[in-house]
Every structure is written in structure tokens, then in C-alpha cells.
Design brief:
Strand order of the largest sheet: 4-5-3-8
Number of strands: 8
Structural class: alpha+beta
Helix content: 10-25%
Shape: globular
Largest sheet: 4 strands, antiparallel
Strand content: 35-45%
């Protein structure tokens, strides 16, 4: 059994155990950003529209919860970009409805990549 992990960002073939002989292909990692300090009245479509100026937005998940600082937040996933840091550099200091947003790599991705 091969226990080596594929290089980051490559497609991997995975066999399902239930159905012998069938395979599924998993898509490469899609950069996910944590966006905080969102205005209270923010809509998912507004985030999508603002960030689509910089890269292809695949998905936006707007939470109903607040972060540790009491701010509303969302997760945005991007396609056509190799690294989340590329997008962060482009959207640094972005304003939305008069508020400066904070944009970071999703904390779970940071832990996987070794950034703390």
C-alpha cells in the first residue's frame, strides 16, 4: 500500500472501498480566505461581487455567528489561483460599505501549511 502523499495541488485518484474498480478524482486544493469585520447588513452576493474583481469566486459562506472580536465573518473560496497569499496581496485594505475588511488564510489551511 502506497502511503506517500501527492505533491500539493495535484489531482489524486481515490478508490472507493464499497465499489471495487470504480475511481473518483479529487479536485486540487481551492484557496479559502477568512474575511472578517463585515458590516452587519452584508449579503453573500455583495461579497461575491466585490472579490470577483480580483479573482474567480467559487463560493462564499456567510456565517450568522461572530468571531472572537464580535465581528461578522465569512469564508470565500477562489478558483484559478494557486495560492491564497496571491489574493490576500490584491485585496489588502479592501473597503466594503465603509468598513475595512480583514482578509486572512483560513486558519485550518494555515495549520496545514505550517504558518501559525
Amino acid at each position: 500500500m502506497n502511503r506517500h502523499l501527492p505533491p500539493y495541488g495535484e489531482w489524486t485518484e481515490v478508490r472507493q472501498r464499497r465499489f471495487k474498480g470504480t475511481c473518483k478524482t479529487i479536485a486540487p486544493e481551492i484557496p479559502t480566505l477568512f474575511v472578517s469585520k463585515l458590516p452587519t447588513s452584508m449579503q453573500k452576493e455583495e461579497i461575491n461581487e466585490k472579490f470577483s474583481r480580483y479573482a474567480q469566486v467559487v463560493d462564499v459562506y456567510l456565517t450568522t455567528k461572530k468571531d472572537a472580536g464580535g465581528n461578522h465573518f465569512a469564508f470565500a473560496r477562489f478558483g484559478g489561483v494557486n495560492k491564497a497569499t496571491e489574493i490576500i496581496m490584491q485585496v489588502k485594505g479592501i473597503m466594503l460599505k465603509g468598513m475595512r475588511l480583514e482578509v486572512n488564510i483560513d486558519i485550518f489551511k494555515r495549520r496545514m501549511e505550517g504558518d501559525k
